[in-house]
# Entry
Amino acid sequence: FKIGQSVGTEYEIFINGKGYVSQKYYDNPALYGMPENLVEYIRTSRVPVPDIFEHIKKYASEIESFAYVIKDVKMHDEVMGMLKEKCPDNYVLDSEPQWIEVMNNQSGKDKGVRHLANLLNVNMDEVAAFGDGDNDIEMLQCAKVSVAMNNASPKCKAAAKYISRDVKEDGLSYGIECILNGDWE
# Structure
């Protein structure tokens, strides 16, 4: 948290799957760098608290993960570098240019997919994965069939074997149909 304070970030903390944010960030996420298309998402999926730092102190042992909200995306790479250097035992990723997430090292979509496949007794050669963000890259790399949405980040597209339609053009269902019809191996 000291790293975030040193560069002036806001925070999102997650406890029991629920996201908590400061009231000032909740009231106007765009002021803190959140794109307009994500403002409603923040307001419907986060719980505002009067003082995020007091909330962090009070529930420190229960925090599952947290995210930095970076107003100046030019600071993104610097913050990522500091976190990876200072917190090598954590899983650090970015799903959007303004979000950097920090969580347990056992986290990650790739680990989740592998765990689910193991529970279902499914070979990884039978797994298809779909993504649109940089936080999907490891998952795409572990799946036999990897598909990025047309609106995906450039790094996500580079990690995928196939590119589907834009998510708003039913890219997921189109991709599934292509797989089932044998249009994609």
Notes: The chain is about 40% helix and 25% strand. The chain has a mean pLDDT of 90. The first strand starts at residue 10 and ends at 15. The CA atoms of residues 104 and 161 lie 28 Å apart.
